[in-house]
């Protein structure tokens, strides 16, 4: 296992390899995209650098469908039971390309912001001309590069927020980390990848803030 610093910047597989990974997992079928269309998109863009992620638009495949495809130590990923509305968390302060497939560039796990609150991290990322990842992008990243999710070095995806009926933002913010098998997770899920949430104003020493330099179709 690489150390935490190297895992945070580990090169991603080539886009053609990422496409094959999504096909192997059946993501193309969930998205209603043919395997050949996915392969063609990857081939046409395979001159991208090794910090570029191939993503399926969340309108095609929501986070609830992607999370169970995560795997760590033989344990499948899951969404916490008190987040049944996970798919209602939509892009916030993030402009996604109007395309079923797109590229996310310049990924960073945001370890330097560990023990920051989302409320503190968002303006800092903006000041660095970076864009926070949305939840589905974070899941795509772990699907392609499982080593990026490490104990004590996991990350939040604060580009996704839930707006309540009255217009205010829900105080929960999505994150991806590793279950301890405690509480309602269940002991059988210890070490499984976990999609959960943290409060907007709270800090956690083991959560950074995943971000990107940009997105393009």
Description:
The protein has helices spanning 4-9, 15-25, 27-31, 35-44, 63-66, 118-127, 135-144; strands at 53-56, 71-72, 75-76, 78-79, 90-91, 101-105, 131-132, 154-156, 160-161, 172-178, 193-199, 207-209, 211-212, 214-216. It has 7 helices and 14 strands. It has 217 residues and is of the alpha+beta class. 26% of the residues lie in helices and 21% in strands. It has a 5-stranded mixed sheet, covered by helices on one side. The longest helix has 11 residues, at 15-25.
Measure the end-to-end span.
Answer: 33 Å
Uncertain stretches: 1-6
Mean pLDDT: 94
Query: What series of H and E elements makes up the topology?
Result: HHHHEHEEEEEHEHEEEEEEE
The overall strand count is 14
Oligomeric description of these chains: single chain
Shape: globular
Radius of gyration: 16 Å
Helix content: 25-40%
Fraction in beta strands: 15-25%
Strand order of the largest sheet: 4-11-10-8-12
How is the main sheet built? Answer: 5 strands, mixed
| Structural class assignment | alpha+beta
Count, helices: 7
